[in-house]
Amino acid sequence: QVQLVESGGGSVQPGGSLRLSCAASRFPQGYYGIAWFRQAPGKEREGVACIVRHDGYITYADSVKGRFTISLDNAANTVYLQMDSLNPDDTAVYYCAMREYSGMLLRAKEFQHWGQGTQVTVSS
Question: Are 4 and 97 in contact, with CB atoms under 8 Å apart?
Answer without folding.
Answer: yes
